[in-house]
Amino acid sequence: MNGLSLSDAEFDLFRTMIYDAAGINMSPAKKALVAGRLAKRVSHYSLATFNDYFKVVKANTNGEFQIAIDLLTTNETFFFREIKHFDFLRTRVLPGWVSGEKKIWSAASSSGEEAYSLAMTMAESCPTPSWKIVGTDISTRIIKSAQTAQYPMARSKDIPLDYLKKYCLKGIGPQDGTFIIGPELKSRVSFQHANLTQNLTAIGSFDVIFLRNVMIYFDMEIKKKVVSAILRQLNPGGYLMIGHSESLNGVTDEVNAIAPSIYQKPRP
To answer: pTM, whole model, 2 decimals?
Structure first.
């Protein structure tokens, strides 16, 4: 593998592929990241170039297309990221949820921290006992990771101490150095594969949707497509949370701004 480099032409092949597959617009600055993440797969197949690997991906040999998508779309996250959204949910939304089943969708759930943060918030503050959290991601590998509900102990630093004691278990023996989301909380959270640029109706309808820190990877055309599809799954009166660095200006007028990065879908 020494001396293997990703040419501009090869980078364009993968950049076009990920845009067509997931709507993600990779800038030229991502070239080194693409090379780094795919190099092991080139080696795995004992190939000479990234172009040879691209042919394997396009042929979908042994499910290689999804493997490449997984490698190119995995993003870091952490528990209770952008805490103001959880505070808004706890203080402004949940007090009104006194009856009926309520559902929240973590639409770009990555390794599950956001979904489990939502579950802790719901378990602590939701008046109705009937609720569930659904997490989706385009990466099947990261979904499998989220389903284990197990994390390195270092990631616990962002969880409020009382939540950590109440809803998480410290790993022992082979799991030493990790913590696990407690089974009762874990049972309220499900994960599934979903591509936000494709039909989302099978996922169901929700009272709150977290679509955070994913639109930054989309151009305006894809943003409009994704947000329109997302909003079809949001119940009237429901809330949409986006990343603090993101905006729906010019994207949609179907929701009303309630607070920075927080929107509500009007009731009929």
So the answer is: 0.92
Which DSSP letter does residue 104 get? E
Q: Which of 51, 73, 95 is the last residue of a domain?
A: 73
Tell me the C-alpha distance between 42 and 50, whole Å.
Answer: 7
pLDDT of residue 3: 61
Report the pLDDT value the prediction gives residue 90, as an integer from 0 to 100. Answer: 97
Instruction: Choose, from 37, 41, 90, 155, the residue flagged as catalytic.
Output: 37
Residue 47 placed within a domain: yes
Same domain, 228 and 103: yes
Annotation marks residue 137 as catalytic: yes
Query: What CATH number is attached to the domain comprising 229?
Result: 3.40.50.150
> Is 176 labeled as catalytic in the residue annotation?
no
212/108 same-domain check: yes
CA atoms within 13 A on the CB side of 262: 17
Residue of 15, 137, 207, 212 marked active site: 137
DSSP sequence for 11-63:
HHHHHHHHHHHH-----GGGHHHHHHHHHHHHHHTT-SSHHHHHHHHHHTGGG
